[in-house]
């Protein structure tokens, strides 16, 4: 039996939004290649010549650190015959980026500096054939790139959007994220559309069912309260929990900027289009999503601590394990949902229950960018 109820304000997006390759291609162009996209953790590129390649929309973007120590981003495409310059996900070049095909060589600012026999090729102007640059900004210790020729204002569309949803407060600023050190990173290859992952992150209706460890520490989540989006709320730890850890054991010292009002509290925020940040007193968890296909999304998750915690070699595994389990539980739920998106039962979408109504705003944001609002 199929239902044919017309989509309403309380309906999710229709199933095709999660399965249609053509719609995904439009999301790549009109969303990921247009907005600021959180691509790389700045400290991962720890020296001149260190590079990382990431997929942004349909493009491969190469991010590297130049000799002055600044991050630079380019399309990962050689200007000669279009070979991919770097095929590895990360690495370090000594002085320059050399194409493996005919050895055109670019400096770390993307300038074409050498090519075999170039001096005899009078019709090739070196100045004309540098790598295509990509706009890059650093914030929160991450490099954000934008492929649009004229990027939207970072202050308004990223920082302003976050501050606006935090009621104009600087909740994120208290945690000094840019100064934190990487304790652990997990990468998840999720067989689900990126929007299912965002929607899941934005609701807590599922917490009681699938997150036993999380609801131990944050009992309020057992009620399915939609705290994930409204970060200003900051649910409190359970009385018996000493820290934000898998067994409720004590964590580390509170990060220096975190005020008393934020102690023993958990804050979470979605930074559109593809970042989630979780803030707890002694560490910060940053998720970056890389949508690779309509049914595949890679999520890179960083657990960040005070530098002295990481340098001391302290055991961070109990705090990592808590959200690692949450991630595995969440991504399993998303993977369980993905196949049903192409079912006739989901042709008109599903239902947003009251605690998920704010997800409707995310759907409006997506459809507006796809030119399908209304
Ligand atoms: Fe890169 Fe020829 S394609 S040098
Ligand atoms: Fe969850």
From TrEMBL:
One of its GO terms (molecular function) is dioxygenase activity. This is Aromatic ring-hydroxylating dioxygenase subunit alpha. It comes from Streptomyces albiaxialis. SUPFAM superfamilies: Bet v1-like, ISP domain. CDD domains: RHO_alpha_C_GbcA-like, Rieske_RO_Alpha_N. Its cofactor is Fe cation. Residues 36-145 form the Rieske domain. InterPro entries: Rieske_2Fe-2S, Rieske_2Fe-2S_sf, Ring_hydroxy_dOase_asu_C_dom, Rng_hydr_dOase-A. Keywords: 2Fe-2S, Dioxygenase, Iron, Iron-sulfur, Metal-binding, Oxidoreductase. It holds the Pfam family Rieske.
């Amino acid at each position: 039996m199929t239902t044919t109820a017309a989509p309403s304000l309380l309906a999710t997006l229709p199933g095709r939004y999660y399965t249609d390759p053509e719609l995904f291609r439009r999301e790549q162009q009109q969303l990921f290649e247009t907005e600021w996209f959180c691509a790389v953790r700045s400290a991962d590129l720890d020296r001149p010549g260190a590079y990382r390649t990431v997929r942004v929309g349909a493009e491969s973007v190469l991010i590297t650190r130049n000799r002055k120590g600044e991050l630079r981003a380019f399309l990962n495409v050689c200007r000669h015959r279009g070979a991919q310059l770097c095929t590895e996900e990360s690495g370090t070049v000594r002085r320059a980026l050399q194409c493996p095909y005919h050895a055109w060589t670019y400096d770390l600012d993307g300038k074409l500096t050498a090519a075999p026999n170039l001096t005899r090729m009078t019709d090739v102007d070196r100045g004309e054939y540098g790598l295509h640059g990509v706009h890059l900004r650093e914030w929160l210790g991450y490099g954000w790139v934008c492929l649009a020729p004229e990027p939207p204002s970072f202050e308004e569309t990223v920082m302003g959007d976050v501050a606006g949803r935090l009621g104009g407060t600087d909740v994120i600023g208290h945690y000094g994220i840019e100064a934190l050190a990487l304790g652990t990173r997990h990468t998840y290859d999720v067989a689900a559309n990126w929007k299912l992952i965002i929607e899941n992150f934005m609701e807590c209706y599922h917490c009681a069912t699938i997150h036993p460890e999380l609801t131990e520490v944050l009992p309020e989540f057992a009620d399915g309260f939609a705290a994930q989006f409204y970060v200003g709320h900051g649910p409190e730890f359970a009385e018996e929990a000493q820290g934000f850890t898998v067994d409720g054991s004590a964590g580390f010292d509170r990060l220096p900027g975190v005020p008393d009002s934020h102690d023993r509290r958990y804050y979470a925020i979605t930074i559109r289009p593809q970042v989630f940040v979780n803030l707890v007193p002694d560490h910060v968890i940053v998720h970056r999503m890389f949508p690779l296909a309509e049914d595949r999304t890679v999520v890179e998750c960083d657990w960040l601590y005070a530098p002295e915690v990481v340098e001391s070699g302290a055991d961070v595994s109990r705090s990592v394990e808590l959200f690692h389990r949450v991630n595995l539980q969440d991504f399993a739920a998303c993977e369980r949902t993905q196949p049903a998106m192409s079912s006739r039962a989901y042709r008109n979408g599903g239902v947003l229950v009251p605690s998920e109504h704010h997800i409707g705003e995310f759907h409006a944001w997506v459809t507006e960018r796809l030119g399908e609002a209304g």
